[in-house]
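residues and backbone:
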Amino acid sequence: MVRVTFLLVAICIAICRATEVADSAETFGTPNIISRQQWGARPPKTTIPALKINPVPYVVIHHSDTVGCNTQAICQARVRSFQNNHMNAKKWDDIGYNFLVGEDGNVYEGRGWGKHGSHSVQYNAKSIGICLIGKFTNAVPNSASVRATQNLIAYGVANNKIKSDYKLLGHRQTAQTSCPGNALYNLIKTWAHWSEKP
């Protein structure tokens, strides 16, 4: 009887630990990052300089203010379009953001970790710029996009790319703009690390 009880207790402990690990992985899962090669990026015009501060103390959230995307094929096409616009019309060296996030739940590598951005002038050298693909003035991004964004930030902190005491900002806090849209801005104000003052 003692053996059976001990065995049952051991099984219960194992199940509880497995559940905790699963819950933790779900909450802080590794983001599915689609590489530049996978989405068909053009090479940058020149070598993108490294960030001046690494790990970065800021994460700046943007929206693309365009039609969104909910499949990998459509999201990849949108990211290529953004890169073409940034490089051709704006004359930048590459796509401006470090990462982009689609409503397909994928993260798309822009300039990537450790690279100087072109998304928020005063913060380009000391932040990671994340653009959620879509127009989020009146509606928030779907749960897949939100989870991917939060997982990306958590991954950055866990891998020493983002400081553990980072400040989360909306683009409008760093420039005269309505970005990232009222709905998304109000959403990120509820997230841990959002800071009223940059």
Remarks:
- The first strand starts at residue 33 and ends at 34.
